[in-house]
């Protein structure tokens, strides 16, 4: 890991987003020393946590030698900007966050919230992980996922196309094909 | 004796006639429902030319993003006027739809603005709400939806969950049964559903309420053969 340059001009941001949900167990997992150290070993210098409606407040840290710079906020209108500037995204399993990160071609770890009542969200994350578009983790396995991941192994997601559905609907309603 | 007999008969007449009426009406409605279900899944062959009034039920978050992706490629001159409906607790979705319609206005011209309407509706079930309390909230949602549907009477309904679309689809089905309005319902299951349909999707599928149901993963098509798989929206 020593070849990674930690100087100011090589800021490598990890952006954690929980969207509009409350996902304290993810924020807590990210805030652990072992996860922060693992991120630093992987060459990431900054960690910004969007904590949404959660109540667990992570510890801010200026990021001196040998640790990542940690910052957090609840909501922001500039989440898209954070996503764009991120080198790694750690997201809740909402399809909005997932597809926005994939569209920006960001290495992505999706953490499934196991506390949700109707937990269908893991379906999407697991399917996309199987297709190697992202890594899928649970809060308690996040450290392991970060330590073992190779962002280079991910395959770029080809965005879907609504045209066939529109064509089907048009044909069904008796409109001629264009 | 005769008089008594007649009285006895006339006393019996009412229940029998009533019973016959009930049985007759029920049979007629059942036949009509079967007829509707049969024809709903068939393509529309005879249709008056011109645009179709379209109701777009916006879900929230990811659901709305998927729906807007579909709307982006639908021919606006064929599907108008467009009524956008979103849950009363969801302000973001209508705002996103407005942005889409505004961009159309810039592209096509000012007159398109009058073809878009935005409204809110009570939701039958919030994320995380238990299925039992959902019954009460669903009834309120149905009453409100009935009022809106009576005003709009759309010819096309596009929806992709969650619960908001169920009252609307149920009312549209009743409208079909009583010949008030024939509307074609298209339901696109969320891309988040890979292995099982959502509750909304499952209801519309099992009760034959959606004319056409789309899934976004091939493995769902295998599980629910009447669904269509023609690719993903996201």
TrEMBL record, chain A:
GO terms for cellular component: UDP-N-acetylglucosamine transferase complex. It comes from Fraxinus pennsylvanica. This is Glycosyl transferase family 28 C-terminal domain-containing protein. One of its GO terms (biological process) is dolichol-linked oligosaccharide biosynthetic process. It holds the Pfam family Glyco_tran_28_C. PANTHER family: UDP-N-ACETYLGLUCOSAMINE TRANSFERASE SUBUNIT ALG13 (PTHR47043). It comes from the Eukaryota. One of its GO terms (molecular function) is hexosyltransferase activity. Residues 14-162 form the Glycosyl transferase family 28 C-terminal domain.
From TrEMBL, chain B:
GO terms for cellular component: UDP-N-acetylglucosamine transferase complex. It is a single-pass membrane protein. Coiled coil: none annotated. GO terms for molecular function: N-acetylglucosaminyldiphosphodolichol N-acetylglucosaminyltransferase activity. Keywords: Endoplasmic reticulum, Membrane, Transmembrane, Transmembrane helix. It holds the Pfam family Alg14. The keyword Transmembrane applies. This is UDP-N-acetylglucosamine transferase subunit ALG14. It comes from Fraxinus pennsylvanica.
């Amino acid at each position: 890991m020593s070849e990674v340059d930690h100087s100011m001009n090589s800021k490598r941001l990890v952006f954690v987003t929980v969207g509009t949900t409350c996902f304290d167990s993810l924020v807590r997992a990210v805030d652990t020393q072992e996860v922060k150290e693992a991120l630093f070993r992987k060459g990431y210098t900054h960690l910004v946590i969007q904590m949404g409606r959660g109540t667990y407040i992570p510890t801010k840290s200026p990021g001196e030698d040998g640790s990542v710079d940690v910052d957090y906020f609840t909501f922001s209108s500039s989440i898209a900007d954070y996503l764009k500037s991120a080198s790694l995204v750690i997201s809740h399993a909402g399809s909005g966050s997932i597809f926005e990160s994939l569209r920006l071609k960001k290495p992505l770890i999706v953490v499934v919230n196991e506390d949700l009542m109707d937990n269908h969200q893991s379906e999407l994350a697991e399917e996309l992980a199987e297709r190697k578009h992202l890594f899928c983790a649970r809060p308690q396995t996040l450290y392991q996922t970060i330590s073992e991941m190779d962002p280079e192994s991910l395959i770029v997601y080809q965005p879907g196309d609504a045209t066939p559905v529109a064509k089907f609907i048009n044909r069904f309603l008796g409109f001629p094909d264009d | 004796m005769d008089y008594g007999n007649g009285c006895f008969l006339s006393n019996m007449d009412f229940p029998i006639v009533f019973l016959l009426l009930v049985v007759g009406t029920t049979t007629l409605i059942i036949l009509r429902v079967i007829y509707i279900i049969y024809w709903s899944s068939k393509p529309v062959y005879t249709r008056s030319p011109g645009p179709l009034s379209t109701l777009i039920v916006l879900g929230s978050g990811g659901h709305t993003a998927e729906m807007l992706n579909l709307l982006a490629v639908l021919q606006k001159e064929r599907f108008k006027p467009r009524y956008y409906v979103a849950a009363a607790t969801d302000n973001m979705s209508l705002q996103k739809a407005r942005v889409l319609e505004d961009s159309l206005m810039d592209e096509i011209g000012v007159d398109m603005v009058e073809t878009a309407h935005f409204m809110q509706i009570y939701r039958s079930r919030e994320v995380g709400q238990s299925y039992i309390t959902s019954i009460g909230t669903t009834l309120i949602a149905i009453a409100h939806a009935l009022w809106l549907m009576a005003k709009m009477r759309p010819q096309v309904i596009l929806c992709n969950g969650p619960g908001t679309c169920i009252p609307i689809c149920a009312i549209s089905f009743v409208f079909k049964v009583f010949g008030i309005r024939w509307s074609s319902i298209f339901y696109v299951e969320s891309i988040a559903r890979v292995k099982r349909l959502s509750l909304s999707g499952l209801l519309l599928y099992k009760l034959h309420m959606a004319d056409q149901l789309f899934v976004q993963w091939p493995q769902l098509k295998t599980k629910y053969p009447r669904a269509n798989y023609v690719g993903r929206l996201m």
